[in-house]
Design goal:
heterodimer; A: 357 residues; mainly alpha; two-stranded antiparallel ribbon; 2% strand; B: alpha/beta; Rossmann fold; four-stranded parallel beta sheet
Chain lengths: 357, 420
Amino acid sequence: MFYRRAGIRHTRYQDERQLFPLGFDRGLIIAVLAILLAAPFLFDRLYVSGYLLPWLIWTSAALGLNLLMGWSGQIHLGYGAVMGIGAYGSVHLVRLGVPLEIAMIAGGLLSATIGTMFGGAALRMKGIYLAMATLAMQYVVDFVISHSTVISGGSLATLQVPPVSFLGIPLQGEVPTYYLALGVCFVITLFMLNVRRTSFGRALAALREKDYAAQILGISTFRYKLLAFWVSSFIGGVVGSVLAVTYLRAISPDQFHIELSIQILAMIIVGGLGSVLGPFFGTALILFAPILLNNLLGFTAGKFGWSLPIDLRAHLPLMAYGALVIGFLLYEPLGLAKIYANFRNYLLVWPFRHAQR
Amino acid sequence: MSLDRRSFIAGSAALAAPLVLPVQVFAQEKIVRFTLPQDFTRIYTFVTSEYNQGQRDYFTLVNDRGGVGGYKIVADITDHANDLPRAIEAYERGKREGAVLIDPLSTPVARALVPRALEDKINMITAYSGRSDAADGSAFPYVLPLSINYWTQAGLIIEQFKKTEKGSLKGKKIVFVHIDTPFGKEPLPILNVLAKKEGYELAAFPYTPPGNDQSAIWPQVRRARPDFVIFWGAGVGQTVALTEAIRNGLPMDRVSGSVWLSESDMDVVGREAAKGVMKVEPCVGGREPKVIKDILADVVGKGKGAGPENKVGTGYYNYGVQMATLMVEGVRKAAEKAPNGPVTGPWLNEGLRSITNFTADGLLPPTTITKDDHQGGGMGRIARWDGAKFVPITDWYSANQDVVWEEIRKNSEEFKKSGK
């Protein structure tokens, strides 16, 4: 009914192989993209810079981590540090007068280099042991940044981002910054959608399932494990610099602590490991559920004249948020992306309840 | 799990529910809106609760007495959990609803909001948090600490030590135990400069954050045989530091903290054992000041208190009242200058930056905010814990401001250079 699958006959290989074979999906994506493109003119500034901008940035980061954790199955607990390296690298370069376009890439390369060095641990370790190694990376990087005043920026440990421009457009106000984040997120999403169709993506999937089986099949685990860390850290570094330039505007060491790593980890687990759509949903839930629940409770309390003690008033939304996350994962352990897939499968055959596969 | 019809409908209804909830509409009267997103749940927790309770009680007092300069104060309170996306959302929401002042009470949040507040011309209060160089009003017109920063606090403590030693610290040894974060290291430049000037020897001992285990550091402090000890931290690290200091037999009357020490900390450490320890007081503690008495009589007494009554008059509660009196005084001054508004950030900014010799009936040291000095004069006093309460041992005084302002200017110049 909605998807109109009947009568679709692919007569060429490229039709069959396109990213979204169903017309309805293509239409949906174009509609979402159009809304995102027009957002600064449609919505209030509150929603653009308070919701959409962080959503795009955090989603980009979650996509980068998902490549490593969801695709190649290598656990990483220090992704916040990876982003921090990119942010500090690029902001320092920008302060030295390097154009932002180059500084972003350089920040990514710096993250990729350091990230790969720590990723080398993955050659010998797996699972929970690798988690510990990457956790160590988080703390080592935190320590180095906050203890070298040259990096962290003086006794106040705050590094201001100077006014920058991207491709000749000054990044001032919420509109250009939003479009930069949107552009980066778009490129990363496109990359992630395509990566699973490449030999690289398939090699990562083979690694994830069983690394020595992959080695027997002729996939160099050495090469692809490091490559997975390289690519993922590169994305992390670039997103880190986007985060610094468009959102934080002044960086300090505590912004890239373990909390950020865990937050992004939670986004991909709640959203769905190994899915492209998942991080979008996961980020929205993790970032905005506390805010919305807080506002909802504040609104309801105001409406009905409840006088809640402030501590309870502040903690109730967090309890509801925790329950929400657990509830979603109990309902569908494969994440929000799978819930969407179920929903889509339901509509694919609607009004019938089942279709023969 | 596959989807059946019932859960499909239930899910759709749950998703659609927030969309049909009505949008809150505010009555149009003469109000000044403040937004107070603070961290009630992650790091500052009980500090925020007490601070915020003081602020709200004072606003209730002012509003019940008919407001200030014809304006009522509206304060929106939310929890930002020290999380930047949440804080920035709260800031943007506050701005949209017409708030002209924000008080985030969090250093990371204040840092991220500085460029935004300067751009949007919204007054940001950064009491005991944020950038210390925001005291330089010429570089940060819309960032107002309105209170003594950490550099000034360090300067005050050293001055008090000097007085204890009858005017000279030559050859003395001062140990600085601090949490190993930028916040903990902040006073170091001042202490170093003063070490050269006063001739004392400075030894710094950092402990790893969050500071719930400092047992390795304090025996070293004891072995260093210090004449004086300054400990610098916040939250859990403070009580652990004090406990360890007591356990290692350091003379408590030669130990001092910053403003971050309160009655609640003393309950954890043991009221009797901590006797003698000093702290910096930026405003009067206890229930003696007239403002606190008024709150007890007219707000708490009438059942309108914002929190538990036994917190009224504690250290952080009074800090909250202190900041609230300054904000309200800013509104009064602004209303004097332009009675009919319009209520905007610049309107309030004019008022806040013309506060002169304000003491809130004896709650604060004489505070004067000017367009250059957002610190308010740099006055504070030292108080000593006597086992039941903090007793002031000095009058309001200001010290070493030349050194402090050198550091402030150095950093604010750097900020200006980055082109904002």
